[in-house]
Amino acid sequence: MHRNPFSDAEITRRHAALRTRMAALDLDVAIVSSPENIVYLTGLDHWGYFAPTMLIVPRDSTPVLTTREMERVSIETMVRAADFRGHADTTSVAEPAADMLAGLSPNRTGLEMQSAGLPHALAAALMDQAPGTFTDISGLVDDLRQIKSAEEQALIRRAAAATNAATAAAIDAIHDGAREEDVAAACLAAMTRAGGEPPGFGPFIRPGTRLGEEHTTWGHGQHHTGTPVFLELSGCAGRYHAPNGRLVHVGPVPDADAAMAEVAKAAFAAVLGALTPGSRARDVYAAWQGVVDDAGLAQYRRHHCGYAVGIGVPPSWTGGNRVVGLRHDSDMEIAEGMAFHVLSWLMGTGQGDFFCSDTVLLGPDGSEVLTTTPQGPISR
Fold first, then answer.
1. CB-based burial, 183-213: b 16+ in 10 Å, e otherwise
2. What is the DSSP letter of 260?
3. For residues 305 and 344, is the Cβ–Cβ distance under 8 A?
């Protein structure tokens, strides 16, 4: 977080791909406000995305990035392929954006209506003040991000190395009587020492008694024998993530959980086999579900068995508010260069509990698992 992780050639390629899609939609201008998509198109890696930021991309001239004036130094340091126009805190980003659109006189402008970076009042003000008509381009840049270039894959591998170090350290710190804060501290220290940068969210580390508290993390208690510990975390490099998850038993692993571990790992392997170019997301989920069904758990269903990962801006590593899942009803085509956080989750089955998850990159030789901590069962 202080430099642009992408080469000029990489940014140029991305802009060209966006403009090709703009031409197909007959758009004169595209306004990008999703923080993840602005990272993708500019390389701006900072925490200033809490304030609305807009990247205005004309079809045939230099893009302009506009946000608070106080971000000028960071933007001028990192952003090479866009001009900057700041605004005072007493004004809205809609005002300079509308002024720029007035100068461009577009007939059709694309706007990310579903972006977490575009509050409703801001969108309404912009559309009221600016000329021309507006059309929703939510998902346009997100789709471009699904296929990872060589530069992106290198960043995901760096993130995975930090994930591996952090996961190992967290597991080593767990024992009967271990303070939750000490396990978290060991995890974060190892992640940082391994080259990890601040992740989109997490790490999620909590006792099994709080398993159902999605997206919460450590507290002020202690871990004890007989209660498993949930780990889900990701290293980060240049805003790219490589999550994994493990279930750590404090003390002996119950026989039922050990048996369920074999089912979960077999289902994970089935996903790896199904992640092939040209297959559909629904086929991948069906491969996972098939193993689960064959194990006598036909009643057990999940909303997905994984989701696409890459760029993530706090508070998420999922790439924004559109979670691209490997779902039973998804027609998404799998392609080389995609990366997924694959989850094999069998918790609350009534016949034993286990889960494991890893980051998987689809390369020319098939699925490659980038996070390498043993899946378990793990006993501490």
1. bbebbbebbeebebbebbbbbbbbbbeebee
2. H
3. yes
